[in-house]
Design goal:
The complex is a heterotrimer of chains A (267), B (335) and C (312).
Chain A (H helix, E strand, L loop, with lengths): L6 E12 L2 E12 L3 E5 L6 H8 L6 E6 L2 E2 L5 H7 E4 L11 H6 L3 H4 L7 H13 L15 H14 L4 E5 L7 H18 L2 E5 L3 H7 L2 E6 L2 E6 L1 H4 L2 H8 L1 E7 L5 E10 L3
Parallel strand pairs in A: 3-8, 3-9, 6-7, 7-8
Antiparallel strand pairs in A: 1-2, 1-4, 4-5, 9-10, 11-12
Chain B lengths: L2 H21 L7 H9 L9 H35 L12 H15 L5 H26 L6 H25 L4 H8 L8 H20 L1 H6 L4 H6 L4 H23 L5 H13 L3 H25 L8 H19 L6
Chain C lengths: L1 H25 L13 E5 L2 E5 L6 E3 L2 H9 L6 E4 L21 H6 L4 E4 L6 H7 L3 E4 L6 H15 L2 H21 L8 E5 L12 H8 L3 E2 L16 H7 L3 E4 L9 H6 L7 H4 L3 E3 L12 H19 L1
Parallel strand pairs in C: 3-4, 3-5, 5-6, 7-8, 7-9, 9-10
Antiparallel strand pairs in C: 1-2
Helix pairs in contact in C: 5-6, 6-11
Classes of the chains: A alpha/beta (267), B mainly alpha (335), C alpha/beta (312).
Chain lengths: 267, 335, 312
């Protein structure tokens, strides 16, 4: 972590309590601008809640700072212009067209009583183009395949033009080919638009292939942060996931984490 | 259907309905007479005093009241369907109908009988607003939060309770049954300019509010969480919609009784024509809703003339198949 | 011993004489109130009924029957009347309902005659099964029905003479009222309002006929197609028909008055409203067929005379 790099997102002693349970405890994190940080952890670790807290959508203790300013100081629409969330299970209004759905991403820019202007339509069109959905603009959402839907949600987030992008399990329900395509697309967008990406992923191999920083969340606490070698380490992963794994690092030929031949390690 | 053309169609249908509403009634007044009367509005004409009285003091205000009622109920229905994400939501969802019914019953049972024309609408209005207020506070305090579900549950509880009280009073004062029952079925038979004066300000204010926030109703379609992430204050929008829709519904109910199904039939029909975006559904619901009630009222007063069928009976006849249609189309959507 | 024998003979003679005179009276089946009026057999709407002796515990479940009973002098014989019987004021009103009669409640009074006018369910046969005589006097359709009911009540209660006198008086008064009214040509039109949703009556009904007696023309006659004589009109219809007179039979039930009528939208164009010929009636008087119909007829006739006087 370079001391001088500006921080897109900074969490300090973040704690969230939901339904009487402490879902997140004492989470502190610093995400530099332009990086891709991946949050990994076993089921129930609190990854989704963490992303929601970063978007200011849950009650919390501790502080969340977006681009140097505390989130409380952002007004709602301002906050939405800073951070966009792509949820794990987005609500898909079946009869809505793709065009309208992506246009929803302009909501923080338009204002409650206004109407979309040329700039908004341009942003929508550009997002549709980038995600190769221009052909589907007037199709109903319920006519799209899983992969196309995922791209539509991403297009909406892109149209929002927020420099911080939160992705909750972006590869859910996609086949391998689509999984890779979506992540490559995000990477490309990140570089082109200078976005900061924070994603929650359960697929450690894909996480390791695309992100440059990693956070391991377990039982609501951060148990490891750092580079891929530091966090996605066989011992660390085995300990927290309760499975015995091994890292296969072939350099340029590829990198993967796989269950080791000894199988799972029940604790 | 493109937006501009569908609004034009809606406006034309409304104008045509108004014309039909003025021309057609249990008493036959020839179109040429109506034209003569209209042209020399208010002045001395060759139309008889009685016919002029019918046109100016009965038909015209009745058409206006019908339009106001139709616009209110349709806009409120559409807006409720948006903020509760439920295609079967109608304007009476949060206890407005039960509250209005109780208000009317109390004023018929205990109020001065020579002042019914004043006390019943006032009591119905107050009751409608009160019912919603009660549902709202119940939903917030007892059931936690301003979420859609807690409001709906509050509404159900309040409606059951108020209806029970109303039934009890009617049992004790059975002479009120006939009058309350006829009010519940909805009628425009005694509509006059006074009713227009009572209803107009509330309806205008409320419908204008809903019209203004129609774009935000689209945003709520993706659920509370995502809408918030897009910068929308979901709780506040829901409150604004509930207040505006309740005001419009209360005004409609106070002058016309409980006319059901309009808030479901009109928005769903409009969606079939223009798609589901509330940018179009809301304005078109207002226009087509007004036309619908005007035309249904014409039916109500001519089919068994000179007697009148309570307008709520006709809308129920038309409404039942609509429920089925809406259920089928939304079968996969309701969670 | 001789004295005992005389006593025995005298007693037997007295008893024999009493039996003989009873026997004589029993042969009479119907008849005037001279001498022994009971037992009496009457043909009524619920069949033939026989009343063995003068009823002393009469219950009336019909406000009209109550008025009739008190008019023919049966006051002391009536022990209870239904909750709607409000005339005469000193009638013994109870909570018994004429619309939803509670057989047990009725029977608990131990009546010997129950008079009623509507039959919801099998009131007659149920009470009959308990040994209680009942008399059904349904709503009259003709003026003569009303007279007939009075006579029947008279015979049933042992007040036949008084009943006949009441009926004769009524006939005389009706004739005098009718003959004293000037009936203009063309006839004056009227609207009789039953409630605030514009229900009216046609000339087929009892009330409707009374209006016809004084030469009035009913605007509701044109409206009732196949109905039971009680059509629902609409505001437009009444305004267009422009009646000369309006009679309000909904002053008590629905709070209507000449003032409220004048405020209805468009109604101030009607002749009757402009000429202040809107007549408030007592709901009860306008819905019963007892002796007070004479009073009702007088009210109508006076209204007609008023209009005539104004026109002059």
């Amino acid at each position: 972590m370079t001391a001088g790099a500006a921080s897109a997102l900074r969490l300090h002693e973040l704690a969230v309590r939901l339904g009487g349970r402490d879902v997140l405890r004492d989470v502190s994190l610093d995400v530099p601008m332009g990086s891709w940080t991946c949050v990994v952890g076993p089921n129930g670790a609190g990854k989704t809640t963490l992303l929601h807290a970063c978007a200011g959508l849950v009650d919390r203790d501790g502080s969340v700072e977006l681009f140097g300013r505390r989130i409380e100081e952002h007004r709602r629409r301002e906050r939405a212009r800073s951070v966009a969330l792509v949820p794990q299970h987005p609500v898909i209004p079946e009869a809505m067209t793709v065009r309208r759905y992506v246009l929803l991403g302009r909501t923080p820019h338009v204002g409650p009583l206004g109407a979309e202007g040329r700039a908004d339509v341009a942003a929508m069109d550009s997002a549709l183009e980038r995600l190769d959905l221009a052909w589907a603009a007037d199709r109903r959402l319920d006519t799209l395949s899983g992969g196309e839907l995922q791209r539509a949600v991403l297009a909406r987030a892109l149209a929002q033009e927020s420099p911080l992008l939160l992705l909750d399990e972006p590869t859910t329900g996609l086949d391998l080919g689509h999984q890779v395509r979506v992540l490559e697309l995000v990477d490309e967008l990140r570089r082109q638009e200078r976005l900061t990406v924070v994603s929650a992923m359960h697929d450690l191999t894909l996480a390791g292939r695309f992100s440059d920083r990693f956070v391991l969340l377990s039982g609501g606490r951060v148990v490891a942060t750092g580079t891929r070698n530091e966090v996605l380490d066989a011992a660390v992963i085995s300990e927290h996931f309760g499975a015995s794994v091994q890292v296969i690092d072939e350099g340029d030929l590829g990198w993967a984490i796989v269950p080791s031949s000894r199988g799972s390690d029940h604790r | 259907m493109r937006r501009a053309s569908s609004v034009a169609i809606g406006a034309s249908v409304l104008v045509a309905s108004i014309v039909v509403g003025i021309l057609v009634g249990p008493v036959h007044i020839s179109p040429s007479d109506v034209l003569r009367w209209a042209v020399s509005f208010g002045g001395a004409t060759s139309v008889s005093d009685q016919d002029a009285a019918i046109l100016a003091n009965l038909r015209l205000p009745r058409v206006v009241v019908a339009a106001l009622v139709g616009a209110s109920l349709s806009a409120s229905g559409a807006a409720y369907q948006a903020v509760f994400r439920n295609p079967l939501a109608d304007p009476y969802l949060l206890g407005a109908a039960a509250g209005a019914g109780l208000g009317a019953t109390i004023s018929v049972a205990f109020g001065p009988s020579d002042a019914f024309a004043v006390t019943v609408p006032l009591a119905a209005f107050t009751g409608a607003i009160g019912g919603v207020g009660l549902a709202y506070s119940l939903g917030r305090s007892a059931l936690g939060g301003r979420s859609a579900t807690s409001l709906v549950l509050g509404g159900i509880a309040v409606a059951s309770f108020l209806t029970a009280v109303q039934t009890f009073i009617q049992q004790q004062r059975s002479e009120t049954l006939r009058q309350v029952y006829s009010w519940i079925l909805g009628r425009l038979g005694t509509a006059g300019w006074d009713d227009v004066r009572i209803a107009l300000p509330s309806v205008l204010l409320a419908v204008a509010t809903l019209w203004t926030v129609r774009r935000l109703l689209d945003v709520i379609e993706v659920g509370d969480l995502e809408a918030e992430s897009l910068g929308l204050n979901v709780g506040r929008l829901r409150t604004i919609v509930v207040v505006a829709a309740s005001l419009a519904t209360a005004a409609a109910v106070s002058v016309a009784g409980l006319i059901g199904f309009v808030g479901i039939i009109v928005p769903h029909t409009v969606r079939l024509l223009s798609g589901t975006s509330y940018r179009h559904v809301l304005p078109l619901s207002v226009l087509f809703g007004a036309s619908f009630v005007i035309l249904v009222d014409v039916l109500a007063r001519t089919v068994v003339a000179p007697a009148e069928i309570p307008i709520g009976v006709i809308t129920a006849f038309v409404g039942a198949p609509f429920f089925l249609l809406a259920l089928r189309r939304s079968a996969g959507r309701l969670t | 011993m001789g004295r005992r024998l005389v006593l025995l003979v005298v007693s037997v003679a007295v008893v024999a004489a009493a039996c003989a005179s009873d026997g004589e009276a029993g042969r009479e089946s119907t008849g005037p109130s001279t001498g022994a009026a009971f037992p009496v057999t009457l043909t009524t709407s619920n069949g033939d009924i026989t009343i063995d002796e003068r009823p002393e515990r009469i219950i009336s479940l019909s406000p009209t029957a109550t008025e009739m009973l008190f008019a023919i002098g049966a006051d002391d014989q009536v022990i209870a009347v239904d909750d709607q019987s409000n005339f005469p004021p000193h009638a013994p009103t109870t909570e018994l309902s004429g619309f939803e009669p509670n057989v047990e409640a009725i029977a608990s009074y131990e009546p010997d005659l129950v008079v009623y006018s509507t039959e919801p369910g099998d009131l007659g046969s149920t009470l009959g099964g308990l040994g209680i005589t009942t008399m059904l006097l349904p709503a009259a359709t003709l003026l003569d029905d009303a007279y007939e009911q009075l006579e029947q009540l008279g015979r049933a209660t042992g007040n036949a003479q008084a009943a006949t006198a009441v009926v004769d008086d009524m006939r005389t008064e009706v004739d005098s009222i009718v003959s004293s009214v000037e009936m203009p040509q063309p006839p004056l039109t009227f609207y009789h309002e039953l409630d605030d949703t514009y229900y009216s009556v046609t000339s087929q009904t009892f009330i409707g006929q009374l209006y016809a007696l004084v030469g009035l023309d009913n605007i509701a006659d044109a409206a009732d197609d196949g109905g039971g004589g009680y059509p629902q009109l609409s505001a437009e219809y009444v305004i267009r028909a422009d009646p000369d007179l309006i009679f309000l039979a909904d002053t008590k039930c629905c709070g209507q008055s000449p003032a409220t009528v004048a405020e209805r939208p468009g109604w101030n164009s009607i002749t009757a409203v402009r000429g202040r010929d809107v007549v408030p009636l007592d709901d009860d008087v306008a819905s019963r067929w007892g002796p007070r119909i004479v009073e009702y007829l007088r009210t109508i006739a006076d209204a007609v005379s008023d209009v005539e006087a104004e026109a002059a």
